[in-house]
Please model this.
Amino acid sequence: MSDQHVEIDFETRSPVDLKTHGAFVYFEHPLTEALIGSYRIDKGPIRRWERGQPCPPDLRAAIEGGATISAHNAQFEILCMAMLADRHGWPRAKLEQYRCTAATAAAMALPRALGDLGVVLGLPAQKDKEGTRLIRKFSIPRKPRKDEPPGLYWNEPEDHPKDFELFKSYCDQDVLVEAAADARMVPLSAEEQSLWWIDQRINQRGIRIDVKSARAAIKMADKAKKELDREMRAATGGAVPACSQPGKLTEWVTRQGIPMTSAAKAEIEELLEADDLPAHVRRAVEIRQEAAKTSVSKLVAFLARCSADGRIRGAFLFSAAGTGRWSSVGAQLHNLPRPRKEFGDAHVNLELLFALIRTEDPEALKFMYGEKLGRTLWLLSDAIRGFLWAAPGHELLVADYSGIEGAVAAWVADEHWKVDYLHLLQSEQGKDQPDLYRVAAASIFNTTPDEISKKDGRRQVGKVSELSLQYQGGPGAFRSMARNYSLKLAPIYPIVWEAATLERKAAAEKRYANATARNEPITQLLSREEFIAAEIVKIGWREKHPAIAGSWNTLEDALRQAVEHPGTKVRVLKVQYLVAMGFLWCMLPSGRCLAYGTPRIKQQVWVKLKLEDGTWSEVSETMGREEAHRGAAKGLVKIERDAKSAVTALGVNSVTKKWERFGLYGGLAFENIVQAIARDLLANGIRKAEEAGYPVIGHVHDEILTEVPKGWGDVGEFERLICELPAWAEGLPLTASGWRGKRYRKD
Model:
């Protein structure tokens, strides 16, 4: 590699909508072309290339000499320069020459968007806000004028010379902002940089989809929705003309004497859980529930992002979360629905199912699978993963880490009994031992794991507790996870209550009384019995996991210590905290760091709140000191005493994508650590797979997907391979379960 450093940015135009179709489809189109390229070499002056010109000699020499090439969202520049190489004879840079400043920003929990990044970093050079107007003018086709026949038209640079000069300056400015941001950020480590290159290769390989079946499924779904509209009109006497009118459905249900505020998924599910729901109302609500299935929209996104060879490329976003975990872009491969339990129980022949889908006839599904399983939109949702499949002569070889977050949590917190038990389960001696869900259930129901069979309903309670409670969650977290596994809280209350000790019962009732007094939102979502059932489960789980439960307060103390003493390393559990350069850093066992921006100490006090009846709440709670004093001045808050201070930091909100301040409490810090370590183990597994010749085509949460020639490779070998621990993870109980086949599925 050369010591030279190139910073570069391109402006392009294309009839392809970049947001809808993604960069790969965008650059595959023959009419996509580069208009401007701004660059600088070794922090020299900004230089410019324009369409029709050859590659500038200095840029050619730098690329051919192996210069490092930096760009923001570099995948775009990689593809643009590949297009210029293919069509116009530019030199072809190696992937290892590229660096991405957006990936660097994301690794520091900074905004990925260049404009937001410039603002957050307070750069002297800021992204030109005129850019949006200029992109619309020159990068997107214009509408035909009145005197022009239908066709493809552009605002040509020569027709708008002043604006095009501004467009050139905009491109120049992006290079300056990218360079300024890069200079202010901590570069990716060598290991993370090499992982980014692997990520790009995975995105370039792509995942093949069954295009013919996807198109047929969309047509079938359209027919099914029209039939559901007819059924909705019949069920409501014409009051609701179509399933796509949730407001009218809400009004109609309310007129039937059933309170309904919206047709949101959660409220629909709650309505259908009621035993006394009138049959005609139930039918209308069920129709809406089926019609609202979004799997078809996922297929539409699949096709939109699909290249000519039937592959979705560019679907994985590196370091999308503050923990470093990936997410999906465009085609949401990380958010595919779980199939219904009935779908799995039916042992559906996928090839037969897809043959029926290609008939485009919803009645064929009902005929083959019956009225319940054969409901078109539900069945397409059940089968959504199957639209991803291997190329002819190839198979998917897939492995999923088993309970990785639970294993990591136990290892990090030194929950010794759990680590030892997981190791036992992985051994020959552990084959006949009860699984962890039975162990968890036993602690909740005050019995032994042997008394709880695999088919015992109590095991499901143990499973949900394992998946929902290790990050300091309570009844709300348990409820959310329970809904994912169709576990209803009301029916389990008598069983949980009967098994609970007097101490657990008293603690749960006290917690409910306190939550009610404070009018906590969860009390509006759960009945008294449901709340108490969830609270007893929580207490039982925490008693079984004292090290994990204790780690939350331990982490909070360490966070305060680190923020109060900048420059001092604070070791806690298996990580280190350090405040430096305006960030709170959390060094993981792998050596990778999590970043939290501008950490602060928030002073807190214990308060009581004035209730609606004018009395004070019986239970005290913590509140920020400033907020408490403002409330006290209005007579709404009674300050009692000082409380432990809390740590706050800045980060990117996963929903709004805004740079916002948030509270970094113990449970959240523990969750971040666990998920970050799980991500590092996934990355290690991906590296191992690649090195052993298993080409990775994707990864979904804790699952690695490869595509191999038929008969090549071995599932057992692959499982062992991706579970080979790096040196830093010694003693961590890691296992995986794999399968191979033509179509992707939830095994």
